[in-house]
Amino acid sequence: MRPTRPLPGSLVQRYHGWKATTFADNAAWYRRLGAEGQRPRVMVISCCDSRVHVTSIFGAEQGEFFIHRNIANLVPPYEPDGLRHGTSAAIEYAVTSLRVSQIMVLGHSQCGGVEACDKMCMGHAPALEAQDSFVGRWMDMLRPGWEAVQTIEDDAERREALEKQAVLTSIDNLMTFPFVRAAVDAGDLVLHALWNDIVDGTLEGHDAVTDRFSQI
Amino acid sequence: MRPTRPLPGSLVQRYHGWKATTFADNAAWYRRLGAEGQRPRVMVISCCDSRVHVTSIFGAEQGEFFIHRNIANLVPPYEPDGLRHGTSAAIEYAVTSLRVSQIMVLGHSQCGGVEACDKMCMGHAPALEAQDSFVGRWMDMLRPGWEAVQTIEDDAERREALEKQAVLTSIDNLMTFPFVRAAVDAGDLVLHALWNDIVDGTLEGHDAVTDRFSQI
Amino acid sequence: MRPTRPLPGSLVQRYHGWKATTFADNAAWYRRLGAEGQRPRVMVISCCDSRVHVTSIFGAEQGEFFIHRNIANLVPPYEPDGLRHGTSAAIEYAVTSLRVSQIMVLGHSQCGGVEACDKMCMGHAPALEAQDSFVGRWMDMLRPGWEAVQTIEDDAERREALEKQAVLTSIDNLMTFPFVRAAVDAGDLVLHALWNDIVDGTLEGHDAVTDRFSQI
Amino acid sequence: MRPTRPLPGSLVQRYHGWKATTFADNAAWYRRLGAEGQRPRVMVISCCDSRVHVTSIFGAEQGEFFIHRNIANLVPPYEPDGLRHGTSAAIEYAVTSLRVSQIMVLGHSQCGGVEACDKMCMGHAPALEAQDSFVGRWMDMLRPGWEAVQTIEDDAERREALEKQAVLTSIDNLMTFPFVRAAVDAGDLVLHALWNDIVDGTLEGHDAVTDRFSQI
């Protein structure tokens, strides 16, 4: 027997509240989205962190943003080896099937995945170095990024720099996907690198010319 | 030079609107979440589809839901092989670091990933069978699920059944993770299997006793 | 020879500024909208008044709002008499070809067209009563609305009430179009009646139950 | 009971965002515009199409452009027959009450109204020929324009030529309004004929001497 359980009453109640209000107010639009399919303008790659709500920040409508969320908003490099690659599958679907016009990689402050990576690279987290640590092996992707910032002594500063390295690593890896590069080169796809301070609400964007992040 | 571009003005404007209203209204809470860290009650595994907004359906507060989104809300089986597993990393982090009390797998109607899987299994989508098809290799996980529903002749019915198989596959694979099974057995973690009809707003939950989905 | 003239340099300069910035930042999206066609969610019927910018108020993206603007945001009744009806053509195109999910009628304060109607109905504007007054004949549509508010003595109050009557007249006339009524009855189309105070930025919405406008 | 419904929450949220930022930043100017009335320099006649944002293209301020939008940016000829003429009312108000200095007719590529006219004139759209087709009867205005371009065999080229004919038809019809002609002759009013390619952002203006459009 599968060990599933009914939803707690408080969530059931919220769902019914949503259905009677938000859903009812948008029913005509949802029906049309269901019938005609989605046509999102933007793919967002952001973190699973419960404190980052990209739909809220950008006032997104249903149907507007195709959203992949993983630990530390990381994109792995292109590896067509026949194995499972969930992030790569999401990118492939967004770019080649949905043909989104923008990909937004959204990093954020106080990122637990980045903090774990930092501790691991400092040699302070042996458990993360075990072969069976999924978080450790996932965050290995950010080791080169850590090397770029390791000389920063202050923990908070180094981690913020590493959070931004995570975003840039994803941008760089995105460009290793042939279909991403082709769409960018053809002017059909634009990439945005962003970092959100969850404490003070600031949003910073990467400037290609200066290669730095600055406040939007 | 990295090929990033500034955000379009309309999104910048919406962000500033959010910061002046939603963010300002919640600043004290966000500051505390930043200082004390997140403590989400629920992990949600849902699809990237732009028409599924789990935070909206459940009226989620910032800090409440830890959300992983991938194509077709699939969880792969436990494979501690030292390779990168983004979904497994998210589950490990949620269960062992954040110690969430619930995992909600949320499938939905009109799922493009499930439709792709159906076509592939029917032999109608050779491109998805290529080794370098990330979507195809990702959806291979659902081949056993397809076999369970393949006798349903009506396309729409079979796909809805397959969408629910995707949810159950994820539940079954979740239970192959030792730390998930241990937490479930200890009563520290509860699993929910859900399916949302994006057209009429219906939410169905899996009932362990009958092994069927029914309307909530 | 047609009496057209080149654009003044200041507008040419602004256009080139837009092309180098806003257009460039959105070029991928505009190309896609051009190739795939528009799929707006909302039709907006608002006034020509230079002080009402509906795209700004609602942070609308290119491709999101189909906008008809005329004097006093008026919809005439359904009259399939084979003559030219510009507003009716816009509504027909939006509802039957584009199949928008919402129609928003947006009235506003200090409306010159409504003020003209008020003066005409008070007998203070004989020029507007002439057969060849296009504004007068257009505003005749609002005469029944004026009768409903004529007992309000204060000019400013009566005009505000008349501005809201203009919105409700449009809603009532919209429902005389068979394809509008059918779409509303089928749940495929939703109507919104709104009034914007251009001085203090307030937005009021019509409440079907109380039949009154209240602040949003 | 009137069938109006509340605005969806996402639009309400965007409105509040606008009010707290754009509106707040311009409140003094809006208050003055409210108190003193509008004094727009330009009347714009453009299409309802959701992909054409004239305020964005020309960086228009609140109070600067008086904007009429209809299907295919068409101006009918002067017909003071005592019937309702929405476009004529807007022109009359702009020229005789507001005394704008410029009228800009802005056509655009991929125009659905022009495409409908083209199909109708080719005999491929019988539904548009029915007496009760508002779009058909509205586009009848462009039949003479279609005759001028009918020998162009390539569909895309013929439609672009027809889009420009729509602009010129409007210019020619504008000149049949006595108050427009008088203002033009007196040097108080200037007419501009423009066409915007929504895909590549190009803007073309009509040159009176060569009677052709060329890139601005």
Automatic annotation (TrEMBL), chains A, B, C, D:
Transmembrane domains' residue ranges: none
CDD domains listed in its UniProt record: beta_CA_cladeB
Keyword Ligase: no
One Pfam family named in its UniProt record: Pro_CA
Amino-acid positions noted as binding Zn(2+) in the UniProt annotation, renumbered to this chain: C47, D49, H108, C111
Key words, A-Z: Lyase, Metal-binding, Zinc
CC cofactor note: Binds 1 zinc ion per subunit.
Entry's Gene Ontology BP terms: carbon utilization
Gene3D superfamilies cross-referenced by the UniProt entry: Carbonic anhydrase (3.40.1050.10)
Annotated coiled-coil segments of the chain: none
EC number: 4.2.1.1
Necessary cofactors: Zn(2+)
A GO MF label: zinc ion binding
Reactions catalysed: hydrogencarbonate + H(+) = CO2 + H2O
Protein family (similarity comment): Belongs to the beta-class carbonic anhydrase family.
Described function: Reversible hydration of carbon dioxide.
Protein's name according to its UniProt entry: Carbonic anhydrase
Native species: Jannaschia donghaensis
